[in-house]
Amino acid sequence: MIGKVQQSNHERGTAGEVIAARNAVKEYPGGILALDGLSVTLYRGEMVGILGPSGAGKTTFLRLLNGSLTPSAGEIRVLGQSLKGIKTGELRRLRSRMSLVQQNHNIIPSLSVAHNVLMGKLGKISTVGAARMLLYLTREERDEVAEVLGRLEIGDKLFSRCGELSGGQQQRVAVARAILADPEIIMADEPIASVDPRTAEVVMNQFRRLNSLGKTVILNLHQVDFALQYCTRLLVLSRGKLVFDGLPEDYRGREIFERSFAGEERRVCCAEA
Length: 273
Ligand SMILES: Nc1ncnc2c1ncn2[C@@H]1O[C@H](COP(=O)(O)OP(=O)(O)OP(=O)(O)O)[C@@H](O)[C@H]1O
Ligand SMILES: [Mg+2]
Description:
Strand content: 25-35%
Bound molecules: adenosine-5'-triphosphate, magnesium ion
Radius of gyration: 19 Å
Largest sheet: 6 strands, mixed
Strand order of the largest sheet: 6-7-8-3-9-10
Structural class: alpha/beta
């Protein structure tokens, strides 16, 4: 299918909806159209892979979903709540139900791995509790962090300073922090970009585990193979538009094209058959 969106989930309506974008447009200063009228509904329990070339709008989309960017036009709904005009307190409460692992990891280099990971809980604990955490960690907190780090194969880094870790290890700290937040929706922006293929499997298996526990998982990925292997649904973005929405098996072997403004067709993605 060229330049068309597969209809696989569209007939489901709002039952089980966790995220809905309706004609979402994001124009950055300088007239850069990062998202150009994106409409899509994501459902509870899906594991969604978002693919597309660099600059397609993938990061912009995730940042609209967690409310750190606002759309120039259109509407975003998360967990039944519209983000349009949402109050700061409401957005904070909503964010405690979703986690975004950012492309730049967003960790604090001067703090230990344990403290960075425990920050995932900040939305759910009191200010006093957060201050106490900086002074000392309870046995339970240490064990909880160690368990998640162990599953990501960086259990030995519990008390290392984050700034001393490799890029791939920092990336896994950011994933661990999102896991500890225990959200209903977990989003990650290129979570396996800085790790080797075997470690990528370790990380993807943790996302699959979360998904099997009922969480909705949304991943921006450049690795088509991993997207095909792990995701239950694929979205492909190109120049801010959705050019494919469907099952991995329907994407496999298919070439996705976009039509440029000059009327030429250009291949943007191609999965192995
Ligand atoms: N803060 C910003 N100000 C201006 N333009 C921006 C800003 N952030 C992103 N853009 C532009 O918006 C477009 C979409 O960017 P975005 O980061 O969403 O792409 P992406 O699909 O995540 O790319 P990548 O795969 O390289 O991470 C690009 O043209 C980018 O240059
Ligand atoms: Mg990006």
